[in-house]
Amino acid sequence: MVKLMGTENKLFTNEFFLLLALTALGAALRASWMVNPATGFMVDEVYYVPAALHYLHPLSTHLNQVSSLFTEDRSVYFYVNPEHPPLVKLLIALGVLMFGNNPLGWRFFSTLFGSISTPALYFTSKRLCPKSALFAAALYALYPLDVSMSQIGMLDAPMVCFSILTVLSMVYEKPKLASVFLGLSVASKLPGLTVALPFVYYVLAKNRESFKRGLKQLLKLLALAFLVYLCAFIPLGYYFGVEAVILDQAYMFLVQQYYGTPTGLAQFFSWLVQFSTSFNPTIFMNNPVVTLLSIPAFVYSLFKLRNINALVLAGFYIGSFGLILAASVIRPIYSFYLEDAAPSMILLDAFLLEALLKSKSWKWIGYALLFIALSISGVLIPIFLYPSTAPFVKEITNFRL
């Protein structure tokens, strides 16, 4: 017997087997690239894979000619990428050691962490909104953007997984474990810092009787998270020296001003107007129903802030989108950035769905929204991932408003 949400449940229930099926389906979709892998670099693999190879075979010029190594020239094979902390790039390097310098080595850990995220989100939702936990798992298992990002050797899938595990640890009242996962999330990619906001809310809310005690505990837990974050730099500090590590991180912040003209939030809503110009498959990376439903779900959570679960969800959502909004002021932003906000959106959607399903009058709306969201994902996944084989893609790509 296991205990969830204060009630005892048998471990092997129909819901458990449905979760296994959803996890297997999500993993199969995320690993489907292995059937016919792209042998060249995909998207930002052109930056992160060479950085991982550099860790395995260090360039002697790392410090002496640093200005020429930090380049946007994609023809440079050993591109030393200083952006973001090194944890996932070290994982890519580990994948290369395990499987060789090939697509499996580059992408193995993205696929693994992307697959783990589905059950992790389920157990998080089981604590926050138990009646719709399976729906949250289904939405995430079939979320086109996460399926796509889990097939590429980039930083996002592991970072998102650690973010979910941070919230999971919080809602199961394991603050030290949450600190560890928070540190791992930020060590994967700096936007992992967004999960720190619900973490702060959670710790202070749990100690609402004594702000001083809550603040003291918060500082200790944040110190633990920072220590975990620093540990990711140990291999780099050992091989390249502390000076190189500091130089890398300083450069990362300095180059932000050279990324181009800020585009605001227009890119996120390109799916509304993209067909009026020319077809671009990136519009299929995001399920618009999941995104749009999260807005009223967020508003609903604000009316439930006395509930610590609603407080955590609202903080997670604010942190995720707050960083995107801040970034849009100083640099271009892209559709795949919504991957970082996907867990908060889906958890909020599940939170709202549970409220709808509890109401006799509104239950049908909840089921209808879920059906529409899952149906859209079912259509979008083959269009985006398999454009040459999906039977209905040709008609859609030739469509113009």
TrEMBL record:
GO molecular function, one term: pentosyltransferase activity
Transmembrane segments: 104-123, 178-205, 217-240, 283-303, 310-330, 364-385
Leader sequence residues: none
Keyword Plastid listed: no
InterPro entries (UniProt xref): LipidA_mod_glycosyltrf_83, RgtA/B/C-like
Record keyword Transmembrane present: yes
Topology term for the membrane: Multi-pass membrane protein
Assigned keywords, A-Z: Cell membrane, Glycosyltransferase, Membrane, Transferase, Transmembrane, Transmembrane helix
GO BP annotation list: lipid biosynthetic process
Compartmental location: Cell membrane
Superkingdom field: Archaea
PANTHER family linked to this entry: MANNOSYLTRANSFERASE YKCB-RELATED, MEMBRANE PROTEIN
Protein name, UniProt field: Glycosyltransferase RgtA/B/C/D-like domain-containing protein
Species, as recorded: Candidatus Marsarchaeota G1 archaeon OSP_D
